[in-house]
Design a protein that fits this description.
single chain; about 525 residues; alpha+beta; Rossmann fold; Elongation Factor Tu (Ef-tu), domain 3; Alpha-Beta Plaits; 3 domains; seven-stranded mixed beta sheet; four-stranded antiparallel beta sheet; binds guanosine-5',3'-tetraphosphate
Length: about 525
């Protein structure tokens, strides 16, 4: 296969949902279709149960599972499908946002009864920001739920994206009969089946075919009326979908294996192959000869005997080869990887070469930060890898002065991994950890002790939000910084951050200082550093 063909057959995407909508079940069914697993139940849900907020074993289990299921690759009908897993728990939302920088499209799972939930909304905001093409799978049609037209309306308004159905459900809940594929004029009949494939597909040239009445009875007429009504909805075009303007919607039941093949077949046909990406030195195209890519996730290895980490590297152009030297622009250093791995369901396999769209796991002894790039000699960084404003703040205090170095190192490495954000406040060098969820504090405390021997405690701080403060002329910000001295801190890249006490204070600051720009997300900033050996 030539490079063009290798690129065109790749589909790299994430399945996202509010917890419990059915992401894990759908992922598993895709893997079954792809032959990557043989039995249902092989993919462990990587979600932390709601009760387990300070159960360390649960956290450890979660970390173990999420390495194993971080990327799941399989071949399907000549396509190479790479599913990038995202943590279900909202406390790890930032991890999900970063994973979205490494995909070319997304499948969003929505529960027919619950509709758009809080997490769905937030995840979609990131997709919109990055113009990621989205397909929507409405799940749990075997249960009673919302009226499909109402749901489409809700999706459109709450997710702020135009939607159009490519299949249409015939009744629902206990009387669910199946779906009608509007695209292919096919009736797909439902029978509950949790183990095998339950699709029973029949093609018709016209919806008026009397055979449909024989099969569906009274539901046939309702289907005809519904289908007629769908004609007022936006017309599907591949271009609008790929531009992130229009989301096609499918209906089914992941648990019952129903509608999954239809979704997967349409997905591989329509979803984009690896797309071009922007760097600080122009655009990188997948077909470019030289290798380039970036690290979007770092995971500390669970094995206490090996203190290495795995950096997840998304290839954007060229071919990645084992044992070849690549350039690490931030460190100005050449690195080579003797045992890069690719992930196949629950297995890791050594990889000889990999193509744009693939994700390679690189064993790392501390060379990588989130956002780092690798190239074949040129120095550039990929744009658009975000850090978001944290919402919970605590001062972190080292309890053992003899372990001060380990404390500093641990804190630096954990925040390089993206577990949380670190801010420093002067005078006194006070270290503040900012997170989006409570769980991260447990993770940090536990891992600092286990991996670095540093015992820490946290002191709650009552800040509401952190925002990065920028100004065109450095002088503009001076007065603000002086005035807000007690609420100012610096992030890891020495950028000034305002820790607002309340919404009122924040709004006031924004109104009082029109020359300043208050930002709630920042790009991961990477500076070329002196080589450190
Ligand atoms: P998540 O990863 O998005 O959090 O959701 P997950 O797939 O774990 O599914 C959440 C629950 O919804 C699971 O039940 C799962 O079996 C169920 N589910 C998924 N798809 C369907 C469907 O099409 N119909 C119905 N009726 N249920 C579905 P659970 O009881 O929480 O877990 P489990 O004990 O079954 O694993």
């Amino acid at each position: 296969m030539n490079p063009q063909q290798e690129i065109e057959r790749r589909r790299t995407f994430a399945i996202i949902s509010h917890p419990d909508a059915g992401k894990t079940t759908l992922t598993e069914k895709f893997l079954l279709f792809g032959g990557a697993i043989q039995t249902a139940g092989a993919v462990k849900s990587n979600k932390i149960r709601k009760s387990a907020t300070s159960d360390f074993m649960e956290i450890e289990k979660q970390r173990g599972i999420s390495v194993a299921t971080s990327v799941m690759g399989f071949d399907y009908k000549g396509f190479r499908v790479n599913i990038l897993d995202t943590p279900g728990h909202k406390d790890f939302a930032e991890d999900t946002y970063r994973t979205l920088t490494a995909v070319d499209s997304v499948i969003l799972v929505v529960d027919i009864a619950r509709g758009v939930e809080e997490q769905t909304d937030k995840l979609m905001a990131v997709c919109r920001m990055r113009q990621i093409p989205v397909m929507i799978f409405v799940n749990k049609l075997d249960r009673d739920g919302k009226d499909p037209f109402d749901l489409l309306d809700e999706l459109e308004h709450k997710l702020k994206i135009r939607v159009t159905p490519l299949s249409w459900p015939i009744s629902g809940g206990a009387t669910f009969k199946g779906v009608y594929n509007l695209h292919r004029s096919e009736l797909n009949l439902f029978s509950p089946n949790k183990t095998g494939i339950s699709d029973d597909v029949r093609s018709y040239t016209s919806l008026q075919d009397p055979a449909i009445d024989t099969i569906l009875g009274r539901a046939a007429e309702a289907l005809r009326q519904d289908v007629e009504l769908t004609s007022v909805l936006p017309k599907f075009t591949k271009e609008a979908y790929r531009a992130g303007d229009l989301a096609p919607v499918f209906f089914g039941s992941a648990l019952n294996n129903f509608g999954i093949r239809e979704l997967l077949d349409t997905f591989v046909e329509l979803a984009p192959s690896p797309v071009s990406r922007t760097t600080n030195r122009g655009t990188v195209h997948p077909i470019d000869k030289n290798l380039s890519g970036f690290v979007f996730k770092i995971h500390a290895n669970l094995d206490p005997n090996h203190r290495d980490r795995i950096a997840f590297f998304r290839i954007c152009s060229g071919v990645f080869k084992k044992n070849q030297f690549y350039f690490h622009p931030r460190l100005h250093k050449k690195l080579r990887f003797s045992s890069p791995v690719m992930f196949q369901a629950n297995e890791r396999n050594l990889v000889e070469e990999a193509w744009p769209g693939d994700v390679v796991g690189l064993y790392d002894t501390g060379h990588f930060k989130i956002g780092d790039s690798l190239t074949e000699g040129t120095s550039f960084f990929f744009k658009g890898i975000p850090t978001f404003s944290p919402e919970i703040f605590r001062a972190v205090e080292n309890q053992d002065p003899f372990r001060a170095k380990q404390f500093e190192k641990g804190l630096r490495q954990l925040t390089d991994e993206g577990v949380a954000q670190l801010f420093t406040q002067q005078p006194g060098n006070r270290k503040i950890i900012g997170t989006v969820g409570e769980l991260q504090f447990d993770v940090i405390q536990f891992r600092l002790l286990q991996e670095y021997g540093a015992k820490v405690t946290f002191r709650p701080l009552s800040y509401l939000k952190a925002c990065w403060v920028e100004s065109e002329h450095p002088g503009d910000a001076e007065e603000f910084f002086r005035f807000k001295r007690d609420q100012m801190a610096f992030d890891k890249d020495d950028r000034p951050v305002y820790l607002a006490d309340s919404l009122w204070m924040l709004e006031r600051a924004i109104a009082d200082y029109p020359k300043l720009n208050f930002r709630f997300s920042a790009e991961v900033m990477l500076k070329e550093e002196e080589a450190v050996d």
